[in-house]
Amino acid sequence: MYDVAIIGAGVVGCAIARELSRYRLRTVLVEAAAEVGFGVSKSNSGIIHAGHQSDPRTLKGSFDVRGNALFDQHSAELGFAFRRSGALVVARTAEELPQLEALRRQGEAKGVPGLDPWDAARLRREEPNLSPQLAGALYSPSAGVINPYEYCFALARNAVTNGVTLTLDAPVTRITQAPDGLVLHTPREPIAARFVLNCAGLHGDTVAGMVGLRDFTIRPRKGEEYLLDKRLEGLVRHVIYPLPREHTKGILIIPTYDGTLMVGPTAEDQDDREDVSTTAAGAEQVFSAIRELCPAITPRDTIAEFAGLRPVASTGDFIIGPTAVRGFINVAGIQSPGLTAAPAIAEHVCALLRYEGLALVPDEAFDPYVAPPTRFATLPFAQQQRLVRSDPAFGRVVCRCELVTEGEVREAIAAGARTLDGIKFRTRAAMGRCQGGYCLDRCMHLLADRLAQPVTSITKRGGDTWMVLPFDGPQHPAATEEGGT
């Protein structure tokens, strides 16, 4: 019997698991996918919002400022990349300037620090590549960018180090009552817990239905995003927002932590919870909007495109709290600004559990730190030389576009990567201009070798996403130190 079972290892589930690992509890984090963060979280825009765009009367608007403030501490402890790049909400016309002022007042009432109105001259001085037609902007210095999957990996790794059990490839198929709690049934084994947290993202309403709760529904909202060639690095320095609309913060320009510009997302409601295709219509919508903000950006700059699905609840807000089923707590409908709010949501859920009767006794052995991964390309030359002398694997380049070495790939596998996407998101291998054309085969063989598995068992992201299929006749040779087929 666990004290707490968390269904869903997205950013919110992982943040809660890490927060609970501070206490003397038996906690299990249960995830349907092959790795943590492979659902909604991996396709997130990676923005840590300042908080002035969310209505303070909503749950969305009550967690984002506190969540934002926790990211400096989390980054220092967990070793993931985070930069306060600042953000600008821009007005296209003078008629929109009063809306910027309303956002400023809302943000200051919520405690958002440093909000500063910029006139057109200041905007052109700070961001000379934006459209000269823009009338002004509201600057928020506390906004930032991260790689959301890195944050998930670090949260989960720290939680496991501190005693949380992580169960992957374990979709919950039904939930039954037990004398002292609830039982989660998975293809692996039944999991009994006193408290169950529903952090199931796109399937939050399905999981709630397993205990007879049908008071909300989840409808996916697709967002298409487009990654641009790294040669545009520095074209725009801040996250650029248009004025927000009712259901979306709009189509943005996002300077990612690693230097690549990203544009998007769209916001299209749909019924399919699996469809993450990109479309010609979506691309036209994105680049048409971006031309108004930054005419220098064109579709020809695209090196990759993807879509993510946001779990939009029928209530229009986050759904966080206990339910009519004893021990079952919803943490559902977590769409934007869910990434920003995640650490604050984790604190709040711990408080809810205490209120519901769970004893939270601090664990004096809790270690909040995770060693950051090696980033060979960013190291000074002398340090690169020392690293290669200590381990020649760091002298063998696997990904030329991003200068990722074999040593980094091995580190990623040791840290838990079990798929090609797991390597990609931990190291940036296959994220450059060639999108894996050079390094995919090498990563595949390194993964097969380290896991002692045939190449034919290696997948892109788990399940049936195999990269190489068996064929009649001689099988692929065993993966070797040098790779090859």
- The share of residues in extended strands comes to 15-25%
Count of domains: 3
> Got a strand count?
22
**What gap, in angstroms, lies between the N and C termini?**
47 Å
**Secondary structure: helix percent:** 25-40%
CATH architecture of the largest domain: 3-Layer(bba) Sandwich
Shape: globular
Sketch the major β-sheet. Answer: 8 strands, mixed
Unreliable residue stretches: 476-485
Structural class: alpha+beta
What do we call the CATH homologous superfamily of the largest domain? FAD/NAD(P)-binding domain
Short synopsis of the structure:
With 485 residues, the chain is of the alpha+beta class. The chain has helices spanning 11-20, 60-78, 97-110, 120-126, 148-161, 204-209, 280-293, 338-355, 381-390, 406-414, 420-427, 440-451; strands spanning 2-7, 27-30, 47-48, 82-83, 87-91, 116-119, 136-140, 144-146, 165-167, 174-178, 181-185, 191-198, 218-228, 239-241, 252-255, 261-264, 268-269, 302-313, 319-322, 328-332, 397-399, 404-405. It has 3 domains: 2-41 and 148-217 and 315-355, FAD/NAD(P)-binding domain, CATH 3.50.50.60; 85-142 and 219-310, D-Amino Acid Oxidase, subunit A, domain 2 (D-Amino Acid Oxidase, Chain A, domain 2), CATH 3.30.9; 376-457, Arc Repressor Mutant, subunit A (Orthogonal Bundle), CATH 1.10.10.1100.
